[in-house]
Amino acid sequence: MRKVTLIKGDGIGPSIMDAAVAVINASGANIEWVEAEAGLGAYERHGTPLPEATLESIAETRVAFKGPLTTMVGEGFRSINVELRKEYDLYANVRPAKSWRGVKTRFEDVDIVIVRENTEGLYVGLEHYLSPKKDIAESLAVVTKAGSERIVEYAFQYAIDNNRKKVTVCHKANILKFTQGLFLNTAREVAARYPQIEFDEKIIDAACMHMVMRPEQFDVVVTTNMFGDILSDLTAGLVGGLGLMPGANIGADAALFEAVHGSAPDIAGKNIANPTAVMMAGVMMLHHLGEHEPAQRLQTALESVVNAGEFVTPDLNPNSKTGTSGFAEAIVAALR
Ligand SMILES: NC(=O)c1ccc[n+]([C@@H]2O[C@H](COP(=O)([O-])OP(=O)(O)OC[C@H]3O[C@@H](n4cnc5c(N)ncnc54)[C@H](O)[C@@H]3O)[C@@H](O)[C@H]2O)c1
């Protein structure tokens, strides 16, 4: 049995995580869940959004499966997602966006993997006011050569391991000549070591336009923290929305798997949240744990239910009366 720390999270978290755990258990994977708390709920219950027991659990299991956590905007504690990535040095955020046969969108053949640098850039939390009146504020972006090198290496290695053909680096080195320039120059150096993989460079704003006009020209995309955050929501939009987009946060000796979306307070408690993204994150986690067969079985069952379009949540089929739990039951039935 492989131990995994399970954090159900806030808002829609408990409902989609219960659904995901049910289908992972039914896939035949050898997992022992170790429940831990984090987020707004943990803060209300324990006075801290990231209890020591949760950190200890992840330090022991080295693998976490996490629901979305609510972050207060502009006040209160810092994002726990950012804290967890920092604590375990989860430097690679991998977000695959692939078209689903049964989900109608503008494009049919999107297959893009965003590899986002997860520990540096503008999200390092170096922010302050520059005036007592608090009418001037400053944020600092930190980019290091070592940090850039390991994320671009990760992207190329991912391309090789997953039979991908091309890596595109997205940057803004034309304006931010130091931070983004360092990232781009390092990417060029790393790319030269992988002649078998095609390398392309795009300025981030142009990349956004290209991506919504001709997404098929993108394969693996590597970029800095904030650009990756934004670009991955864009790719989620190309394949049917946030409810379908999984994410893996990978470090040298720990990993955390989650959906890209947040805690969706607008639909919490209604049993209508789509659990597909977090189930796909579960598939990524099973591969990471070497449980390839259960991972494949789960993916096939999930695809069959999503593509049939009948027992899915209303965001995928507005005529459907199926809720989050009914969706999971349909996948468990498909697994049997
Ligand atoms: N990884 C994380 O834990 C994470 C990521 C993003 C945002 N957040 C936090 O979540 C909270 C809410 O953020 P937000 O509203 O900007 O973004 P959100 O992703 O929670 O919601 C954006 C929109 O997408 C919809 N949506 C999201 N997930 C869905 C799903 N599974 N099924 C169907 N519809 C879904 C929501 O109903 C909402 O209309 C904030 O506190 C934010 O900080 C957490």
Summarize this structure briefly.
The protein has 336 residues and is α/β, with parallel strands linked by helices.
Explain the overall architecture.
This protein is α/β, with parallel strands linked by helices and 336 residues long. It contains 11 helices and 12 strands. It has helices at 13-26, 40-46, 52-61, 80-87, 145-161, 179-192, 204-213, 225-239, 276-288, 292-308, 324-335, and strands at residues 2-7, 31-36, 63-66, 92-98, 111-117, 121-129, 137-142, 166-171, 198-203, 220-223, 246-250, 255-259. The strands form 2 sheets. It has a 10-stranded mixed sheet, with helices on both faces. Nicotinamide-adenine-dinucleotide is lined by residues 12, 16, 68-71, 81, 242-243, 258, 261-267, 273-274, 277, 315.
Counted up, domains total 2
Can you tell me the CATH superfamily of the largest domain?
Answer: Isopropylmalate Dehydrogenase
Gross morphology is: globular
Over the alpha carbons, how many angstroms does the gyration radius reach?
A: 20 Å
Report how far the terminal alpha carbons are from each other.
21 Å
In the CATH hierarchy, what is the class of the largest domain?
Answer: Alpha Beta
Task: State the total count of DSSP E strands.
Answer: 12
User: And the CATH topology of the largest domain?
Assistant: Isopropylmalate Dehydrogenase
* Sheet with most strands: 10 strands, mixed
Ligands present: nicotinamide-adenine-dinucleotide
List the helices and strands and how they pair.
Layout: E1 2-7, H1 13-26, E2 31-36, H2 40-46, H3 52-61, E3 63-66, H4 80-87, E4 92-98, E5 111-117, E6 121-129, E7 137-142, H5 145-161, E8 166-171, H6 179-192, E9 198-203, H7 204-213, E10 220-223, H8 225-239, E11 246-250, E12 255-259, H9 276-288, H10 292-308, H11 324-335
Parallel strand pairs: 1-2, 1-3, 3-12, 5-10, 8-9, 8-10
Antiparallel strand pairs: 4-5, 4-11, 6-7, 11-12
Helix pairs in contact: 1-9, 1-11, 5-6, 7-8, 9-10, 10-11
